[in-house]
Amino acid sequence: MIESRGYSIWMMPSGQVYDELSGLISKLSGEHFSHKFEPHVTLLKVIEGLGEDISLKTSELAKLIKPFKIELEGLDYFEDHFRCLFIKAKETPELMNANLEARKVFSRGIDAIYAPHLSLIYGELSKDMKQTMISNLKNEREGKEFAYAFDVNKLDLFSTQGEPDKWYRAGEFPLTV
C-alpha cells in the first residue's frame, strides 16, 4: 500500500451528492479490497510543515477565494495509485484560479499542472480492470452520464499522513462571501 504524507486541502460535496459518491466509493473499495475515503476534489496536496502554520495559510487562502461550483463529468483513469479511477472535474476559471491562489499561498510553482478530479478508488488495478469497472458503472446507470455538481463554500484541511484510514479533518475554513 502506498502511503501519503503531509496535509491536503480538499473541496468536498455535501448532501445528496456526498451520499451518492460516498456510497459509490464504499462499493468500489469493498469490491476491490481498497481503502475507503471521503469524496473530495483536492485543491492542493502534500503540504508539509507544522499543522498550525498550515492552518494559518489555509485560513489566508480561504479569504482569497469566493464560493463557486465544481462540475464533475466523465469517468477516466490513470496509472497512478491515487488517481486509479475518477470523475473529471471541469477546469472552470474559478476552480483553476483557486488552485493558482493555493499554489501562491503555499509557495508552490505557479506553472504546475493541475488535473482536478474526484477519485472513486485508490489502487494499482490493471487497465483492463479499470475499463471493465467503467463499463459496469455505466451499465448500472443505464447510460446516464456520471455528472455531478456541488457548491464549494469552504476548504477542508485534511491530515493525509499514512494510509487513507488514518486521514482526518484538521480544519474547516469558510470561503469569503
Description:
By secondary structure, the chain is of the alpha+beta class. It has helices at about 15-30, 50-60, 95-105, 125-140; strands at about 5-10, 40-45, 70-75, 85-90, 115-120, 145-150, 155-160, 170-175. It has a 4-stranded antiparallel sheet, covered by helices on one side. A 4-stranded antiparallel sheet has the order 5-4-3-6, covered by helices on one side. The model has no long low-confidence stretch (mean pLDDT about 90).
Which overall shape is indicated by the principal axes computed on the Cα atoms?
globular
- The number of distinct helices, counting runs of at least 4 residues, comes to 4
Rg value: 16 Å
| Secondary-structure element pattern, one letter each | EHEHEEHEHEEE
Helical proportion, percent range? 25-40%
Poorly predicted sequence stretches spanning 5 or more consecutive residues: none
Mean pLDDT: 90
**Physical arrangement of strands within the biggest beta sheet:** 2-1-7-8
- Sheet-strand content, in percent, reads 25-35%
Number of strands: 8
- Structural category is alpha+beta
N-C termini distance = 40 Å
Biggest sheet layout: 4 strands, antiparallel
Task: Summarize it.
The protein has 177 residues and is of the alpha+beta class. 32% of the residues lie in helices and 28% in strands.
